[in-house]
């Protein structure tokens, strides 16, 4: 079986990492992979070990030329199936290209933001099947009218291995100029509005009087960086909050956090939540999208209502004040990730859907 994967993202963030996991897993299962991605995309180089990489201009939803470029690639490579992994033009335009080429097409949906029923009725005709990365996203599509037999949930996964090592918390704090016993919370997310950084900053007004030594490390980059930097300074938080940018050694340091905070307004599932659980870090997340599937309330973390700063502050205060609870939740998180979010399970799930789609096409 030969599969053309289309990933339009330029950075190796959560979604693109999932594509990389899938490419590697499918290659081990004997699948011939071809990856189409933008020129200079960060996924291109590591993907070459598992796929033939073809860099094509991908300029977003208005790039109508992408249809002809993908159609030409399909004609040249003759894949059995096209798997569209991202938005930014790749979903709609990629679906049109596959339809014009007469090749079966599968779409991965990674976000839980709603779409109008008429959009769903028209757009999703392009795809033979839709794969959602969480049951929460699947329920959104079902509520918008997509037929149940056309959409399946195959959860995102994480390679837990890099996060299983012991972390020297004292040495990590020393590298930041902090006392060995300083409490450290983290947030790992793109610096974009829906991730909810503003809620975390607001909650600190209630948390810091009880935990004045708390350090909050914000990992990631994005268009909100300047705005967040200004907010941190304006709210007098510069002594407690640091913007760490994008780091290459996240697996080495994630386990040194006392807790991870992820107060997003919406999230398909949350790869950083899985990574934190693998590193035995308890989590505070929003009760929205697929996050309750990654964070089981009272088991490996605490859930709060989206945008509720008082609940968020209370949850942070509870975990910061109870080391034994943090340890129990950390252990439960690792057990959860190893049992339910393995890369092998994700790859097997995607491959099963490919085979189902191809078998149904052969019947028609």
TrEMBL record:
Domain of life of the organism encoding this protein: Bacteria
Keyword annotations from UniProtKB, A to Z: Glycosyltransferase, Transferase
UniProt KW Glycosyltransferase keyword: yes
EC id: 2.4.-.-
Residue ranges of every copy of the Glycosyl transferase family domain listed in the record: 169-334
Family matches, as Pfam families: Glyco_transf_4, Glycos_transf_1
Keyword Glycosyltransferase assigned: yes
Residue stretches making up the Glycosyltransferase subfamily 4-like N-terminal domain: 14-160
Single GO MF descriptor: glycosyltransferase activity
Name recorded for this polypeptide: Glycosyltransferase
Organism of provenance: Thauera sinica
């Amino acid at each position: 079986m030969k599969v053309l994967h289309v990933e339009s993202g330029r950075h190796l963030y959560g979604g693109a990492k999932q594509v990389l996991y899938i490419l590697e897993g499918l290659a081990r299962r004997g699948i011939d992979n071809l990856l189409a991605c933008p020129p200079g995309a960060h996924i291109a180089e590591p993907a070459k070990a598992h796929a033939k990489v073809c860099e094509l201009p991908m300029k977003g939803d208005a790039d109508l030329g992408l249809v002809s470029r993908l159609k030409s690639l399909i004609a040249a490579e003759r894949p059995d199936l096209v798997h569209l992994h991202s938005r930014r033009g790749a979903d709609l335009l990629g679906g049109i290209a596959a339809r014009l080429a007469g090749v079966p097409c599968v779409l991965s949906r990674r976000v839980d933001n709603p779409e109008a029923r008429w959009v769903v009725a028209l757009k999703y005709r392009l795809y033979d099947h839709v794969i959602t990365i969480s049951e929460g996203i699947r329920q959104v599509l079902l509520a918008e009218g997509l037929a149940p037999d056309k959409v399946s949930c195959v959860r995102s996964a994480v390679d837990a291995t890099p996060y299983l090592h012991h972390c020297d918390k004292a040495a990590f704090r020393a590298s930041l100029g902090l006392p060995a016993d300083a409490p450290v919370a983290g947030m790992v997310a793109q610096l974009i509005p829906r991730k909810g950084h503003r809620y975390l900053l607001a909650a600190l007004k209630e948390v810091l009087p009880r935990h004045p030594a708390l350090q909050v490390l914000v990992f990631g980059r994005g268009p909100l960086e300047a705005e967040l930097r200004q907010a941190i300074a304006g709210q007098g938080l510069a002594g407690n909050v640091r913007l760490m940018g994008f780091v290459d050694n996240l697996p080495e340091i994630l386990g040194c956090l006392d807790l991870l905070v992820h107060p997003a307004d919406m999230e398909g599932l949350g790869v950083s939540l899985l990574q934190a659980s693998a590193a035995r870090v308890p989590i505070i997340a929003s009760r929205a999208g697929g996050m309750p599937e990654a964070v089981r309330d009272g088991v490996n973390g605490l859930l709060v209502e989206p945008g509720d700063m008082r609940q968020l502050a209370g949850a942070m205060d509870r975990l910061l004040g109870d080391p034994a609870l943090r340890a129990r939740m950390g252990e439960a998180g690792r057990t959860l990730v190893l049992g339910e979010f393995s890369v092998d399970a994700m790859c097997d799930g995607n491959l099963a859907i490919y085979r189902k789609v191809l078998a149904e096409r052969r019947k028609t």
